[in-house]
Model the fold of this input.
Amino acid sequence: MPDRRTFLKTVAYAGAAGLALGPYSVSAGQPARRKISIGGHRVQVVDIHAHCGIPAVEKIVSGTPLEMTVGGIRLLGPRRLERMDKLGVDIQALSINEYWWYAADADLARRITRTQDEGLAEWCADHPDRFVALSTVSLQHPDLAAEQLEYAVTKLGHRGASIGGHVNGVPPSSERFDPFWAKAEELEVPVFMHPSSAEYLVKEGGFDGRGDLGNIIGNPLETTTFLSHMIFDGVFDRFPQLKVCAAHGGGYLPSYLGRTEVACDVRGNANCANQKRPSEYLKSQILADSMVFTDEGLRHLVAEMGAGQVVYGTDLPFSWPDTLDLILNASYLSDAEKEAILGGNLLKLLQIS
Done:
């Protein structure tokens, strides 16, 4: 293991060089790697929705109110590569998306994010042809989050940031959070939004009962609420080059866009700050992953957003139905659209060469 100085020098060079992705050979004894072709043309499959954890952060939070154990299936190791190879995933954009560190004060938050971001950079440096990373910014401190993003992108080679849908119950769409959004726009990197907990949106016990409703309903509900605030509070107008990718198919927003589309016209108390129709943001600044699981769900998502705004996501290491074959077999998509969704859109968005 290199010392910290050597490590940072190495990843900084890799970041500046663009982390160009080279060939990958499967070692003896591993199952064959699935390679995806469309129309006889080999395509790169890129996954935006990939969970992980960095155990080194345990030392940072030891003895604090945030003390925790980082373990379980999120940990990176050979099993991750095996599952990627089996599915046909060439590249994953790694993110740590539980956002428990949003409760930390500025000093602790600075150390948590630095430890996690450098841990991600080290893993990516060890597997440069298979992984890129998204910074784990401390969004509760927007000025600090902007600094963290700049360090992660310019020094560690990260390709953007991952954030939750709210910061301790507050949507990150007010001008208080503008330093972070401004930095993402300046650096020309995307922000991947993954829900953390929608409990703040419902009365206590509102998700109790069968069906794990906090996940099944809560996660897309949080995403829908986040995107709606971002639109109606004018964030995309203040930062017209900003790109935000929302997990789980963009929540319920693309599924019931018509009601959002007319809100500013028919609701006298809507007090909208957006300068465009909501649908325009879905076709330009908002992207969504492919985790809708049905052929009709995917068709509708593409119809509302366009193939250029939909990207592939797996939610690995969790065992949700995979959508790669759903995309490949979609009769309503051209070969060019399939290639764009499976990897082309993310190759450009994440600046992967």
Observations:
- The chain has a mean pLDDT of 91.
- The beta strands are 37-38, 41-42, 46-51, 91-95, 131-133, 161-163, 191-193, 244-246, 286-289, 310-311.
